[in-house]
Specification:
76% of the residues lie in helices and 4% in strands. It is mainly alpha-helical and 140 residues long. The protein has a single domain, classed as Nucleotidyltransferases  domain 2 (Four Helix Bundle (Hemerythrin (Met), subunit A), Up-down Bundle), CATH 1.20.120.330. It has a two-stranded antiparallel sheet. It starts with a helix and ends with a helix.
Length: 140
Amino acid sequence: MNVEECFKKRLLRKISPDDEKASQSIKMAEEKLNMAKMALEKEFFDACIIYAYTSMFHSARALLYKDGIQEKSHVCIIAYLMENYGGKIPYYLINSLDAFRRERHEALYGLEFYAGKEDVSIAIKDAEEFIKVVKRILNA
């Protein structure tokens, strides 16, 4: 799905830009990242994937709030980032967000999902980097 379709289907909607919500989203992203790290210590790998993805999701959402966009679809967030931040956020991080979106879905709803320690380590590393990149964009 592309950004235009997301707006047509009202999965993305224009709102007033909101720096306070953007800031709250970054704080939430950092909290979820810390929860992912705690889950890793306990070897709760599925929870780790869920928290790392949620951290990246809230980071991405901060950019949408800054731009005056409300989301109703995780897929549309990724489309929006690709179209509007592809030059500022490395593509591999946007692709990682999408990959961990799918893994989060499998961890929550799938019957045969297994997250390994290596997957979790990558998820946490990418979530940390995603937050740093988004903070840089927000403070520019």
